[in-house]
Every structure is written in C-alpha cells, then in structure tokens.
Design goal:
Layout (H helix, E strand, L loop, with lengths): L2 E6 L4 H10 L10 E3 L2 E5 L3 H8 L7 E6 L10 H5 L6 E3 L2 E4 L4 H13 L6 E5 L12 E5 L4 E6 L2 E6 L10 H8 L7 E4 L8 H6 L3 E6 L2 H13 L6 E5 L2 H4 L7 E6 L9 H7 E14 L5 H11 L3 E15 L2 E12 L3
Parallel strand pairs: 6-7, 11-12, 11-14, 12-13, 14-15
Antiparallel strand pairs: 1-3, 1-4, 2-3, 5-6, 7-8, 9-10, 15-17, 16-17
Length: 337
C-alpha cells in the first residue's frame, strides 16, 4: 500500500523523526522502515509533513510514497474493550461525548491502557454556552484541561475549559492560509487562541487578532511567541465592534469565523476592509439554502461602497441534521466615488 513517508538518510533519521513527532504527524499504523540506505517515516499528512520539515537546517529529506509494513503490535482502545469507542483526538487528549458516566470511565481506562500516545481523557459535561463559547469538561484521566495541539506545522496551547477550539477545522484553516501572500494585512475578528492568525502570520502576513475572551487572547500571544511570529501579530481583548474604527480601511483579508452570528458584525468588517479585501465569512444555515442568507447579508452591508464578488461557496462540514457549516470567500472591491 502506498503511504506518504518522509525519506531521509539514517544518520539524520532521529532529528527528522523528532521534528515530525513534535508536529503530531507520524502515522502510528505503519512501521518506520530502512530500505536501500534510506529511512522511511510514515506520515499522516503529506503537505503538513513537508511544511514541518521545510525549516530544517539540512535538506537531506523528501516526501515520497512507500509501502511500509503495517504495525500489528499496537494495542488499541477497541482491543481493550472488545468494541470500538467514539472519541476525538486533540493533541495528547481524547475527547468523549458520553452521557453514561460508567461507560465514559470504561472508555477512558481503555484509552490509557492502549498504546495510543494519549495522556488525557475528557468528557463533555455541557453544551457550548455564553458569548465566549466554552463548555464544561469532566477530567477522566490526566491532570487537567490544558492541551497542546499541532496542525500543519503550527503549535497551539489551549485550555478547553476556558476557550473554544475545534480541531475539525484544521483543513479549512490550512485552505485559507494557503491563499495568503507575504506582506498582506490580515484581520481575524474572532481570533481565539490563533488557529487562523498563527498560520497566516507564518505565511508572511501582518495580523491582528481580536477576541472578547481574555484567556484566549493570553494563549494567542503565547502561541504567537511559540511559533516565532510574535513580531507579526497584534492582539486586542475587546468586542471587535469597538476596535473596528481604529483599523478603518486597513485589511487585505478578514476572517469571520463566528458562524451563528457573524452577520451582526458585517458593518465592522466593511469598516476594516481596505480598497480590495477578501472576506472569509463562516455561517450555519439550512441545507436548502446554505449560502443565500450570508451572500444577501454581505451585499447589504457592503453596498453601495463596495462591489461584491463571491469567489468560493464551500461546505465545511455537516453541523446538525439538515444544517451545514459553510464558508463564503468574498472579494470586496471599493467603488470609485
């Protein structure tokens, strides 16, 4: 079976393996293999592995496809339980959504007893609540709710009990980051711990991140330092509607990832937008018309100052029965007065 692998000379193997392990990119389902003088390290994401290795001081590696042997010795939670549990991985944490406390505890023990590199198991104890969109968690295994998550060469420390974060949007965040050109000015209106801000800054953008959650902003600043982009990131702990006038006409790109109520902030987005600005607008709507309400709201907010062009209509994921989480990539072009 062809599997993406980092290929490197054995003498450089440990340094490469460590770099990939730090980025949580090694595919544990396959063995690391030596063949014909090369070491092959299976990876879970070809592009992310290339990104994680691109800053290495030596260039004695590349990403290739290879047929490594499957790893048969790993004990999984399913092996321990005799049935397959449902959980989500975030860094070295497993996230459960179990109403039965005994079942949740059983799954947690199985995860810890398995060979998976998971040290913390948390169970969702409430729905998302409040304007900061946080929830309660029961700590079943481990020391607390602080975790370190890695995606596409970026590292994010966060406290799940104090801020909102979704690992399910990793691909979407990478899609947006790949559009960024060095020197752009990017504004994230609901920045959280920086899952958009950090990769955009690493692509060479000058970034502003705003969030009403003080804890999230503290972690954003910490993550900017960890990822080496602190000099390119400015943060504000505030309602973005209060900050917008300070950045009138500033942005080349705006991220609006507040799907349930982003339309309430479109007036501020128009204030922040420069003469030509790309808007990434996230929404949750019924599957019968997932894009129409957002397009209408943007047109209404931008008129008559801007010409509005929808470049991408994208379904990010299913959110609930008959409801879709979608993104509109929209270009605002200022009209001559």
């Amino acid at each position: 079976m062809d599997v993406p692998c980092a290929r490197v000379r054995p003498a450089k193997g440990e340094a490469t393996r460590s770099r990939l392990a730090d980025a949580d990119l090694i595919d544990d389902e396959y063995e690391i293999t030596v063949e014909d003088g090369w070491l092959y390290i299976p990876v879970v994401d070809e592009k992310a592995a290339a990104t994680a290795l691109e800053s290495a001081s030596d260039r004695d590696h590349d990403i290739v496809t290879f047929d490594p042997p499957a790893r048969h010795t790993q004990t999984t939670p399913e092996d321990v339980l005799g049935w397959e549990p449902s959980y989500e991985r975030l860094g070295e944490a497993a996230l459960l959504e179990e109403d039965d406390d005994e079942r949740a505890a059983e799954i947690a023990r199985a995860i810890v007893e398995s060979d998976l590199p998971l040290e913390t198991v948390l169970n969702k104890a409430s729905k998302i609540k409040g304007e900061t969109r946080i929830r309660d968690w029961d700590v079943l295994e481990g020391e607390g709710t602080t975790v370190v998550h890695r995606e596409y060469g970026c590292t994010f420390e966060l406290d799940l009990a104090a801020m909102y974060f979704s690992p399910r949007l990793a691909t979407e965040r990478h899609r947006v980051a790949e559009q960024v050109e060095p020197g752009e000015r990017a504004f994230d209106m609901f920045a959280g711990v920086g899952p958009f801000v950090i990769p955009l800054a690493k692509r060479g953008a000058e970034c502003v991140g705003v969030d009403i959650n003080e804890a999230a902003i503290e972690y954003l600043e910490r993550n900017a330092t960890t990822n080496g982009v602190a000099d390119h990131v400015t943060t504000h702990c505030a309602d973005v509607r209060e900050i917008a006038p300070e950045y009138e006409g500033w942005a080349d790109r705006i991220v609006m990832n507040l799907p349930h109520s982003a339309d309430e902030f479109l007036e501020s987005a128009v204030t922040i937008a420069g003469d030509r600005c790309t808007l990434h607008y996230y929404d949750i709507q019924h599957e019968d018309d997932p894009f129409g309400p957002g397009e209408h709201a943007i047109q209404e907010a931008a008129a008559p100052e801007y010409d509005v062009t929808v470049e991408t209509r994208r379904t990010v994921r299913s959110y609930a029965p008959h409801e879709l989480n979608v993104c509109l990539d929209v270009v605002l072009e200022r009209l001559e007065s």
